[in-house]
Amino acid sequence: MAYWWIRSVGRTDFDASHRWRMPGIICPRCRRTWARTGPALPSVSFEGDPLGEQLNRWPVALARWKELAKAVRPYVPESEPIVPGLTFGPLEGELYRSFRLGWHGSGGLVLSASLQRAFAKLAPGLSLVPADLGVPEKYLEVEVRSGAIATSMRVASPCSECGFREQRLKDDRLVIGDVRADLPPIFRLRNYPAAVLVQEVLLPLFRRELGDEAELVEVRIWKRKQARRNGRRRK
Ligand SMILES: [Zn+2]
User: Fold this and answer.
1) Which one, of 181, 221, 208, lies nearest residue 101 by Cα?
2) Interval between CA 190 and ligand 1 midpoint (Å)
3) Using only C-alpha atoms, what is the Rg of the chain?
4) Are the C-beta atoms of residues 142 and 103 closer than 8 Å to each other?
5) What pTM value is reported for the model?
6) SS (H, E, C) 122-140
7) What stretches of the chain show up as alpha helix (H) in DSSP?
8) What distance in angstroms lies between residue 75's CA and the mean position of ligand 1's atoms?
9) Comparing 55 with 171, which gets the higher pLDDT?
10) Rounded to the nearest whole angstrom, what is the distance from the C-alpha of residue 150 to the centroid of ligand 1?
11) Which of 34, 97, 108, 215 might form a disulfide with 7, Cβ 3.0–4.6 angstroms?
12) Residue 196 in contact with residue 216, Cβ under 8 Å?
C-alpha cells in the first residue's frame, strides 16, 4: 500500500486552539525549553477534572513535567506518545470563512459536515470530533493518531535527560518504517509528529478539496537491505 505525506501550504480559514495542552519542558541538563507542534487528541477531555487546570501553555521543569505525563497517561490511548505540546479537547475558536477541508496549524485537519459522509466512507474508524468555531455550521476535527516512524531523519544533539533531539529530514525526503497492517488511513509519525500521512485511497479527496493548499509527496517505505541480510557490507 502507498502512503502520501500531506504538507500544508494553505491559507488559514479559522483561528482556534485546543483547550488543554501538555506544557513545554524546561530541561536542567540541556537547558532547552521546548515543545512539539502538531500532535492533538481532541477526543480526550479534562472537563471538570482538576488535572485539566495544570495542562496549559506555560512550560514547567522536567521533573514536574514527568509527574504530569504520568498523571495524564490513563486518559490517553495506549498507542499515543505523550510529548510536550500534545493538546487535548475539542477545538474552540473563530471562523474567518467557510471551508470544506482545512488546516489547523500545519498538522491538524478539520472538515465541514458536508464532507463528513464522503470522508467517513474512505476513512472508516477515524474519530471526528466536533469543533466549535463560533458559527451554527458544523465542523469536525480529524483525530490523527500515531502510526509509523520516520527513518530518514538526521538527529543532532540529543538530550538523554528530556528526550529532545534536533531533527531534520535527509534530503527533505520522507521514508517510513514500522509500517503495520493495522495503520489507520490517516496518521502521524511517532518520532516526527508534524507530518500527516494518508493512504492512497484518500488522495483524490485531498487533491480535490485542498487543491494548491497542500503539497502531496509520496513516501517511501523502508526495507532492510539485501546486502546486509547476506552478511556482506560495502566498505
Ligand atoms: Zn534536555
Assistant:
1) 208
2) 19
3) 19
4) no
5) 0.90
6) HCCCCCEEEEECCCCCCEE
7) 62-72, 113-122, 203-210, 226-229
8) 26
9) 55
10) 22
11) 215
12) no
Cell digits for 33? 525549553
Helix (H) or strand (E) holding 83, with range, is none
CA distance 234 to 227: 8
pLDDT at 235: 45
Map out the domains of the chain as residue ranges: 146-222
Q: How far is the CA of 149 from the centre of ligand 1 (A)?
A: 22
- H helices of 27-112, in order, are 62-72
Between 170 and 140, name the one with better pLDDT.
140
Q: Are 206 and 217 contacting, i.e. CB atoms less than 8 angstroms apart?
A: no
Q: Which residues contact 192 (CB under 8 A, 6 or more apart)?
A: 149, 150, 153, 167, 169
C-alpha cell at 166: 534536533
What amino acid is encoded at 232 in this protein?
R
Cα-to-centroid distance, 162 and ligand 1 (Å): 4
